[in-house]
Amino acid sequence: xxxxxxxxxxxxxxxxxxxxxxxxxxxxxxxxxxxxxxxxxxxxxxxxxxxxxxxxxxxxxxxxxxxxxxxxxxxxxxxxxxxxxxxxxxxxxxxxxxxxxxxxxxxxxx
Length: 110
What we know:
Layout: H1 2-21, E1 40-45, E2 51-55, E3 59-63, E4 71-74, E5 83-88, E6 94-98, E7 103-106
């Protein structure tokens, strides 16, 4: 009986000590597709190098180098409404329209 308790105690001690060996930090990073994974619904080409695209979950991404690199301009976690359309009247003034009456306006090119 004492041997069984001793074996159980040793097993639990080793098991609990092993938990720290496999602990990982919470440093998740999005890998693919870059820069994010939400569906994109519309894009507006401001010039050959500058494009802004909008999509699901409040996603707005922008490139200023012809699509080589994209930067997330706006993305709100937990928002289920998406943006469906984007339009600019010049390089500074533009609007984004989304579901449920969401409208965003920029005067500095986004």
